Amino acid sequence: MREKLGEIDVLINNAGQIVVGRFENQDTEAFEDAMQTNFWGTHYAVLEVYPQMRARRFGRIVNIASIGGKIAFPHLLPYSASKFALVGYSQGLRIEMLKYNVLVTTVCPGLMRTGSPRNADFTGQTEKEYAWFKISDSLPVGSIGAKAAARKIIRALSYGDAEVHLGLSARIASIAQGLAPGLTADALGLVDKYMLPSPVPGKPELQKGSESESEVTQSALTQLTRDAETANNQT
Question: Is residue 44 annotated as part of the catalytic site, yes or no?
Answer without folding.
Answer: no
